[in-house]
Automatic annotation (TrEMBL):
It holds the Pfam family Sulfate_transp. Keywords: Membrane, Transmembrane, Transmembrane helix. It is a multi-pass membrane protein. Residues 471-585 form the STAS domain. This is Sulfate permease, SulP family. The keyword Transmembrane applies. It comes from Phormidesmis priestleyi Ana. Its main location: membrane. GO terms for cellular component: membrane. GO terms for molecular function: secondary active sulfate transmembrane transporter activity. It comes from the Bacteria. The chain crosses the membrane at residues 36-58, 78-105, 117-139, 145-164, 195-213, 234-253, 284-302, 323-342, 362-382, 387-405, 417-445. It is found in: Membrane.
Length: 588
C-alpha cells in the first residue's frame, strides 16, 4: 500500500525546514515575544525619521525626483526582513549606489526626468535579477574577488565625489552635472563668485547642526547622566530637524522667491503606482555593466553591515540568502517606482542601537514611509535643497577611509597601492570604471602573490620533529638532501616559479642526492603543475637526484593516485611526515 501524502511530505506543500531556510521570517515570527515589540516599534520610528530625509536626498543625488527615494524605501523595507537573515539591517537607498545610478542615468537620459526614472526602475530590476540569480545559484563567493583594499578605495573615492557633487547645492550654484570629478571641482571654483549666500548660510548651519547632534550633544547628554536609549532618539533626529527648520525658514520668509533658494517642490501624494521596467534588449544590454557593478557594491555594503551587527548578537548571516533577499528587495523597488537599494550601515547601526529585535522594525519603517507618502508629502514643498545637500555631506564624510589606507600601506604596500589606484581611478574615470579596474587590480594582486609563493628551505629544529625555515631559525640540515616547503597550492601560474627556485638551489648545492618537497601547505595540484612536476622528476633523474614528497594532503594524494603519478614516482617516494623522510633520507 502506498503511503498517504501528508502536508509535510507533499510536493505541493513545502516542509517547515524548507520555509525556515528560504523564508527566515518564519524563524523570528514563530518565536516572537511580546517584550520585543517596544524595541521594534521604537527602532522602526527612529529609522523612518532618519530615512525620510535621506531617501529624498539620495534620490536627488541620483538625478531623480525626491519621491523616487521615498518609493524605494517602502516595498524593500517590507520585503527584506521576510527573506533576509539579518534582523536589524535597514534596507533602502544609500549614497554610493545612488551615485552609481546617477552616473548610469547621465549617460542615457541626462535631462529627461521621465526617462531617468524609467532607467532607474530598469536598473533596480536588473540589479534584483542579478542578485537573486547569484544567490539562488549559491555563487555569493564571487564577490570575494573584490579585496578590502579595493572596496575601501572605491567607496572613499565615491564619497569624495558625492560630497563635492553636493557643494553646488550647498553654495546655491547652478552647475550642470558632469561625470568628471576634476571638471566638477573646476566648475565649482569658477562659479564661487556666484555663491548664493543665503543658501550657503542655511546649508552651513544645517551641517553645523548635524555635526553638533552627532557628537558634542551626545557627550553633553552623557555628562548629564542620560542613558544611551534616551540619547539615541535625540541625536538621530537631527536630519529630520534640519528638514523641518529649513522648510519653516523658507516658507516663513519666502526665501524661494526672495533669495532664490531652490526647493524640492511638488511631491505627488499617494502610494506609487505599479511600474514596469524597460524590457527591450538594447536597453538591458546597455545597463547591464552598471547593474552588475551596483549589484556587487550594494551586496558587499549591505552584507558587511549585516554581518558586523549580527556578530554583536552571535547571530549567523547566510551570504547567499542575503543575495536572495537583496534581489527580492530590488525587484520590489522596480515594480513600485523605486531605484536600486541595499542595506545602509549607518541606518542599520541606528536600528540596532534603538533596540530592534526582529525584522518587524524594518516593516514598521516601510509602513511609516508609506503613510508619509500618502498624507504628508505636501509638507516637503518648501524643503531647501541646500539642507538635503548638508544631510548627504554629513552622511558620507565618514566613508572616506584614509585610516585603512595608512594601515594597509604599513602592512602591505601592494594593498596600499591597490587602494590608491582604485581611489584615483574613481575620481578620474568615474565609479563604474573605478570598480571594474579595482576588481582587475584585486585579481591581478592575487595572481601575482600566488605566482610568487613563499618557498623555504627547511631543517630540523634541535632534536624535535619540527622543521622550519633555515633563514629564520637555527636548524640542522643535510648536505645530501634539499628539503623545501612551498606555502601555496601548486598550479599553472606558480609551477615554473617552483622549478626555477629548485634549479637555482640545486646549482648552489653540488652534493645534493635527494630533493624533498614538503606539501603541508599545498591544497591543490592542478594538471599543468603536475606535468611540470613530471618533467622535473625526469630532469632530476638525469642528474642522479631522487625526488620525494612528504605530508601530502588526502584530497591531493587521491588525485595523484588516480592519475598514476604515485606509481610513476614510486610509493616509497612518499612520506607521511617530514620527520620520517629526513630520518630515512639523511639520518638527521
Amino acid at each position: 500500500m502506498k503511503p498517504k501524502l501528508t502536508k509535510k511530505s507533499s510536493p505541493f506543500f513545502p516542509s517547515n525546514q524548507f520555509l525556515h531556510r528560504h523564508i527566515p521570517a518564519f524563524n523570528w515570527l514563530r518565536n516572537y515575544q511580546s517584550k520585543y515589540l517596544i524595541g521594534d516599534i521604537t527602532a522602526g520610528i527612529i529609522v523612518a525619521s532618519l530615512l525620510i530625509p535621506q531617501s529624498m536626498a539620495y534620490a536627488l543625488l541620483a538625478g531623480l525626483p525626491p519621491q523616487v527615494g521615498l518609493y524605494a524605501s517602502i516595498a524593500p523595507a517590507i520585503i527584506y526582513p521576510l527573506l533576509g537573515t539579518s534582523r536589524v539591517l535597514a534596507v533602502g537607498p544609500v549614497a554610493v549606489d545612488s551615485l552609481m545610478v546617477g552616473a548610469a542615468i547621465s549617460q542615457l537620459a541626462p535631462s529627461d526626468t521621465a526617462q531617468s526614472v524609467a532607467i532607474a526602475i530598469t536598473l533596480a530590476f536588473l540589479v534584483g535579477l542579478l542578485e537573486l540569480s547569484i544567490g539562488l545559484l549559491r555563487l555569493g563567493f564571487l564577490v570575494n574577488f573584490l579585496s578590502r583594499s579595493v572596496i575601501s578605495g572605491f567607496i572613499s573615492g565615491a564619497a569624495v565625489i558625492i560630497a563635492f557633487s553636493q557643494v553646488k547645492h550647498l553654495f546655491g550654484l547652478a552647475i550642470p552635472s558632469t561625470e568628471s570629478f576634476f571638471q566638477l571641482v573646476a566648475s565649482i571654483v569658477g562659479n564661487l563668485p556666484k555663491t548664493n549666500w543665503v543658501a550657503l548660510a542655511l546649508g552651513v548651519s544645517s551641517v553645523g547642526l548635524l555635526f553638533y547632534f552627532n557628537s558634542p550633544l551626545v557627550k553633553l547628554l552623557q555628562h548629564l547622566g542620560w542613558r544611551d536609549q534616551e540619547i539615541l532618539p535625540v541625536s538621530k533626529s537631527a536630519p529630520l530637524l534640519v528638514v523641518i527648520l529649513g522648510t519653516l525658514l523658507v516658507w516663513g520668509f519666502h526665501l524661494d522667491q526672495a533669495a532664490g533658494i531652490k526647493v524640492v517642490g511638488d511631491i505627488p501624494k499617494g502610494l506609487p503606482a505599479f511600474t514596469v521596467p524597460f524590457l527591450d534588449v538594447q536597453t538591458l544590454q546597455g545597463l547591464l555593466p552598471a547593474a552588475l557593478a551596483i549589484a556587487l557594491v550594494g551586496y558587499m555594503e549591505g552584507f558587511a553591515g549585516g554581518q558586523s551587527l549580527a556578530n554583536k548578537r552571535r547571530e549567523k548571516i547566510d551570504a547567499n540568502q542575503e543575495l536572495v533577499a537583496f534581489g527580492a528587495a530590488n525587484l520590489g523597488a522596480a515594480f513600485t517606482g523605486g531605484y536600486p537599494v541595499t542595506g545602509g550601515l549607518s541606518r542599520s547601526v541606528v536600528n540596532f542601537a534603538a533596540g530592534a529585535n526582529t525584522g518587524l522594525s524594518s516593516i514598521i519603517t516601510g509602513l511609516l514611509i508609506a503613510v508619509t507618502v500618502m498624507f504628508l508629502t505636501s509638507l516637503f514643498y518648501f524643503l531647501p535643497q541646500t539642507c538635503l545637500a548638508a544631510i548627504i555631506i554629513t552622511a558620507v564624510y565618514k566613508l572616506i577611509d584614509f585610516a585603512t589606507l595608512r594601515r594597509m600601506w604599513d602592512y602591505d604596500k601592494a594593498d596600499g597601492l591597490a587602494w590608491v589606484v582604485t581611489f584615483f581611478t574613481v575620481l578620474a574615470l568615474g565609479v563604474e570604471k573605478g570598480i571594474i579596474l579595482g576588481a582587475l587590480i584585486a585579481l591581478g594582486l592575487h595572481l601575482w602573490r600566488t605566482s610568487h609563493p613563499h618557498i623555504a628551505i627547511v631543517g630540523r629544529v634541535g632534536d624535535s620533529e619540527h622543521f622550519r625555515n633555515e633563514l629564520r631559525h637555527s636548524v640542522k640540515t643535510s648536505p645530501d638532501v634539499l628539503a623545501l616547503r612551498m606555502d601555496e597550492s601548486l598550479y599553472f601560474a606558480n609551477a615554473k616559479y617552483l622549478e626555477n627556485f629548485l634549479n637555482q638551489a640545486i646549482a648552489e648545492r653540488i652534493n645534493i642526492k635527494s630533493v624533498l618537497l614538503v606539501c603541508s601547505a599545498i591544497n591543490v595540484i592542478d594538471a599543468s603543475a603536475l606535468e611540470i612536476l613530471e618533467t622535473l622528476v625526469a630532469d632530476l633523474k638525469q642528474l642522479d637526484i631522487e625526488f620525494y614528497l612528504s605530508e601530502v594532503k588526502g584530497p591531493v594524494m587521491d588525485k595523484l593516485v588516480a592519475i598514476g603519478f604515485v606509481d610513476y614516482l614510486g610509493k616509497n617516494h612518499f612520506f607521511l611526515t617530514t620527520d620520517q623522510a629526513m630520518q630515512t633520507l639523511a639520518e638527521i
